[in-house]
């Protein structure tokens, strides 16, 4: 899987003659960033490079930046922890809180944003429904059993509260493997993209019942970051029992100072979380900082924000305090650099002149424009795209394995089902999964 990259990128077009070009906006998502605003900084905080944090409001950094980031985001992931969602005494989801959260989600969507929820709570809800000792720490198998029971109830709660607004809830359960194995990663991403395109709200949790100790995320902070990375989200909000990152745990150190913005995970910042971020750390700030590392690398802004009290998103949009972790680049750039830099091309796809022109204009590569295919690759592999004269045009992730791609070569997308026996994607390489080589790159290679 894309260990580090995420985001969307340039598109490429289809073959001439029998193939239609597919220019236009990527997967229905609009322009992702608005122009710069002048900066806003808190005392002692380095000036962010980001254009979204520039303003004259020197003492109101978090409010200005929060509203900027959220207002400009097209795709937002909200992570809800068990403690916020589940009433400890009853083991039931806090209904009024959830309803208010959904009001916030409706507002976000009204502004044209896509919203995904990463929700914990399956174990907390399910524990009470099984004859388990609630005083001790449950063993892994007991937690998995509890999750199996609780997840049904959790999904039902989301279905009801979203359904009141006519919104369809969609349950997606993921394991670490889904984010690290490229095929599974692409499948999960395509499913989530499709759900969003169709107007549903994906409600995502770890697939606790099959995840084992060794492979489980173990913490939904990191799962949420992986989801943000996988879906090229612009912003991830981790709702917590605390309003952000402090120089030390404020519950232990009354002198701890609030940090409004983090631009780089320096050793000093990591130390604030109580030590180095490891893959196996759990809870507290450690997993939140691990999530921040994933997001910042993926070009996604991340916030630790207070979730207690009603309408947490609304409060944030109205200037409520939180800590923002700012990425150094946008999701487009992160994904583009992952495809062009980190992935080895496992095959070569030769396209005709019409397809080459369409690629340059921005659009997806349809099978119709393909003349030849070299290599033995799997679905999701990176391949080099070359023109009829062998010149490099692009690099992208293929939607079909080599043997199927060869069957589709030169055919219209409408023939895919008849040729393969199933209806796959229209594009051999979707424009979002492709980096078009610039003239300089072509000359250099
Ligand atoms: N540097 C820090 N800044 C803020 N909180 C910290 C810090 N170090 C440790 N913490 C602790 O982390 C807690 C939040 O983590 P946790 O309870 O796991 O989150 P969640 O709200 O997602 O359940 C805070 O209540 C606080 O006690
Ligand atoms: N997947 C588990 C939750 C894991 C988790 O990270 O929980 P939390 O720390 O409450 O966000 C569940 O649904 O119970």
UniProtKB/TrEMBL annotation:
UniProt KW Nucleotide-binding keyword: yes
Family the entry assigns: Belongs to the glutamate 5-kinase family.
Organism: Pararhodospirillum photometricum DSM 122
Region (Disordered): 16-41
HAMAP family hit by this protein: ProB
Coiled-coil intervals: none
GO biological process: L-proline biosynthetic process
Reaction(s) this enzyme catalyzes, per UniProt: L-glutamate + ATP = L-glutamyl 5-phosphate + ADP
Protein name listed in UniProt: Glutamate 5-kinase
Single GO molecular function: RNA binding
InterPro entries associated with the record: AceGlu_kinase-like_sf, Asp/Glu/Uridylate_kinase, G5K_ProB, Glu/AcGlu_kinase, Glu_5kinase, Glu_5kinase/COase_Synthase, Glutamate_5-kinase_CS, PUA
Highest taxon in the source lineage: Bacteria
Location of the PUA domain: 347-429
Pfam families: AA_kinase (PF00696), PUA (PF01472)
Low complexity biased stretches: 19-28
UniProt-annotated binding residues for ATP: 79, 240-241, 282-288
EC number: 2.7.2.11
Gene3D superfamilies registered for this protein in UniProt: Acetylglutamate kinase-like, PUA domain
Annotated keywords: Amino-acid biosynthesis, ATP-binding, Cytoplasm, Kinase, Nucleotide-binding, Proline biosynthesis, Transferase
Compartment(s) of residence: Cytoplasm
